[in-house]
Amino acid sequence: MPTAADPAAALPLTLDLEDFKGDFSFDALFGGLVDELLPEYRGEDDAAPAPPPPPPVLGAAPPVFPAVDELLGLFKHSCKELVDLRRQIDKRLQNLKKEVAVQDTKHRKTLGELEKGVDGLFDSFARLDSRISSVGQTAAKIGDHLQSAESQRETASQTIDLIKYLMEFNSTPGDLMELSPLFSDDSRVAEAASIAQKLRSFAEEDVGRHGVASAVGSANASRGLEVAVANLQEYCNELENRLLARFDAASQRRELSTMAECAKILSQFNRGTSAMQHYVATRPMFIDVEIMNTDIQVVLGDEGLQADSSYIADGLSTLYKEIADTVRKEATTITAVFPSPNEVMAILVQRVLEQRVTTILDRILIKPSLASLPPLEEGGLLQYLRILAIAYDKTKELAKDLQSIGCGDLDIEGLIESIYVAHKDEYTEFEQASLRQLYQAKMAELKAEAKQHYESTGSIGRAKGASLTTSPQQLISVTVVTEFVRWNEEAIARCTLLFSQPTTVAANVRSIFACVLDQVSQYLTEGIDRARDSLNEAANMREKYSIGSSVSRRVAQAAANAAEAAATAGESSFRSFMIAVQRCASSVAILQQYFSNTISRLLLPVDGAHPSACEDMGSAVSVVEAAAHKGLLQCIDTVMSEVERLLSSEQKATDYRTPDDGAAPDHRPTNACIRIVAYLSRVLEVAFNALEGLNKQSFLTELGNRLHKGLLNHWQKFTFSPSGGLRLKRDITEYGDFVRSFNAPSIDEKFELLGIVANVFIVAPESLASLFEGTPSIRKDALRFIQLRDDYKSAKIASMLNNITAE
Questions:
Q1: What does the DSSP 8-state code read for residue 20?
Q2: Do 384 and 447 sit in the same domain of this protein?
């Protein structure tokens, strides 16, 4: 502690343990110690005016830091206080450690005692649980024994009663008058029925065992129960009839509770089958003749079997709706009455389909004979097939409605199929026969129209020949082919409605599609053949009126007129054939589109079906293409015949060998060339429109080759002068410009070479060698044409040719 002589002795104790708790700050502690001694260092806001310094001692230097001694004393005093505080804290810590050690020892001792107590409790609980379990098991065994004893007692009591009742039934055969009151009391019918069924089951089983034992020679221990079996059977039959009578009476009064009571008791007799069947059989829809007649009237009306298919469809929809409503009402009653409503609904729905529905189907679906088809005036086979599809579709809808109402475990789809199986087995044959019948009728109609047209043409038409007066519409009609496809499409729709298995559908679809392939192929081929007949008759006319050269002028004029008529007929038949080919192509396109849109998707799911159908269609189309190809070749013959006629009649010898009169050469095409190009432009216009693709290219290429060859053969009949060569080249240019519209490069090249070959008539003899050297590809044709020069001999060109060929 400070003394009186110590400068800091007068300072109060400034430090306390509380100063070091909480948020301790050394700066705040230090500031609190020195603020009183150093007021000049306080902040500007709270600094007090500094006292005046003490007067200096004479002869001594003024101190640098006057408060140093006070501060040193303060700091020493503070250090002593801090040491004292540390000692106090250390002492307190020692005391706390001793207290914690004592308390920890007590706590550990207490925990040990608690653990021993808990272990003892667990042991007690385990012993208690084991005891409870043992007592429970013992109680359960006692309960089981008591329950078994009670059950045995009840069974023995019931057995005694059953033996007593059995003895009553086994007393006298056919005598049911001496039975206990139980079997005649109407209020105890349920109990009597239950006991009778038990007795009957026991007696029948005993008789059965007796029969087996007798067969092996065992003792006859059960002799006499045959009487009981007979009496019980008689009693059960009588009781069942009595309950059915009560059930019927309650049904007429709509007493559902009584009906339910009877049905519950009757369920003990053969699981209630007789009651279920009896209820279903007594429904008015199955026994009322008036309802059956009304059904037929609703579906067929006054027209009977001649009713329109749409009328029958509406009638079936109305009838089936009424049937579904009736079954729905019956389902409400059945659910309220019978303990097993699903079984009753199965019997009811089966009876509806097998009786009521089948009755009306037998009236509207009368299968015709394939040997004697019904006439189309009465609807033909198509009427039967349409009604079949309608009836099947409507019946399937009815089946869905009935299934939604409830039909138990009945296989309603299988039942529907069994109803229609007789019709579906021969469906494909009937569909094919119907399509053939429609086709034959259509062909007969077209022939009648053609005959009427032929007769309307009069004697002039007959003199020229029937085929020449046949219009293109009568040869091939796209509308007729569209009708064929429409028939087939309708048949395919019926097929997919009647069958669902992909394999069956594919097989039937392919058979039906084969019909339209045959029909279209036959119709188009016959149309093409009729168009070819026109071409043949025009060719016959040309041959008939060809004459020799030594005839009179009058005969020659008559022959020329006949040739003009034959040319007109040929041009007309050419146009008709091209239109027929165009319509044939359109018809095939319709068939192919139908195959892609409708047939393919039905065949693709089955392996091999689609490729086979493609082959069938390819074969059918190839037959048509073969006929069309023959006709196109005849068209080329017709065109070339007219070209040859124009060349022979219009081409003059002076066209290519003009006299050397000094006049300017004529650079116009010859009259024959003009006439031929005009003819070709006119007649081929229809070909350009009718043909397309490879057919068009092939036809024009063949025609171009024939024209080139014909012109070469024609020009070899003439002699050419230089001016005639120029005019020949002008003709070749005119022909070349025309055939360029063929878009056939090979033909263009041939006519270009012809233009070069024509130069052999124009150049001077001495320039021929250079012509061959410039274009060696024309050597073969040029060597033939060069002999047609009018100066071939005079200019000794033959010797020049020998030199050229030798080189």
A1: G
A2: no
pLDDT at 288 over 90: no
Give which of 729, 561, 570, 708 is closest to 642, Cα–Cα. 570
Verify that 336 and 369 share a domain, yes or no. Answer: yes
- Across the chain, which distance is largest between two alpha carbons, in Å? 187
Cα(286)–Cα(280) distance, integer angstroms: 8
Identify the weakest region by mean pLDDT among 447-456, 514-523, 539-548: 539-548
- Asked if 480 and 442 touch (Cβ cutoff 8 Å), the reply is yes
268 occurs within a structural domain: no
Rounded distance between C-alpha atoms, residue 437 and residue 484, angstroms: 12
* Geometric angle at alpha carbon 685, from 680 and 688, rounded to 5°: 115
Same domain, yes or no, for 101 and 148?
Answer: yes
| One domain for residues 442 and 398 | no
**Which 8-state DSSP code applies to residue 460?**
H
What's the pLDDT tens digit per position in 606-624?
A: 999 999 999 999 999 999 9
CB–CB of 604/502 below 8 Å?
no
Show the domain range for 705.
651-805
Among 665, 666, 683, 657, residue whose Cα is nearest residue 738: 683
Determine contact, residues 547/519, Cβ cutoff 8 Å.
Answer: no
Please indicate, yes or no, if residue 116 is contained in any of the structural domains: yes
Beta-sheet strands, E only, within 339-400:
none
Task: Report the C-alpha dihedral over residues 282, 283, 285, 289, rounded to 10 degrees.
Answer: 30
Q: Identify the domain boundary among 578, 593, 626.
A: 626
d(CA 192, CA 74): 123
pLDDT digits (tens, 9 = 90+) for 732-761: 999 999 999 999 999 999 999 888 888 888
Rounded CA-CA distance 522/627 in Å is: 11
Number of domains in the chain: 4
Sign of CA dihedral 719, 723, 726, 730: negative
Angle, vertex CA 195, rays to CA 191 and CA 201, nearest 5:
150
pLDDT per residue as tens digits for the range 620-667: 999 999 999 999 999 999 999 999 989 988 888 888 887 654 555 667
pTM confidence score: 0.69
Question: Is pLDDT at 799 greater than 90 in this prediction?
Answer: no
Distances (CA, A) of 28 to 8, 31, 573: 21, 5, 131
Nearest to 490 by CA among 513, 523, 518: 513
**Across the chain, what does the average pLDDT equal?**
80
- Whole-angstrom distance, CA of residue 545 vs CA of residue 562: 6
Q: Are 453 and 471 in contact (CB under 8 A)?
A: yes
Residue 24 lies in a domain: no
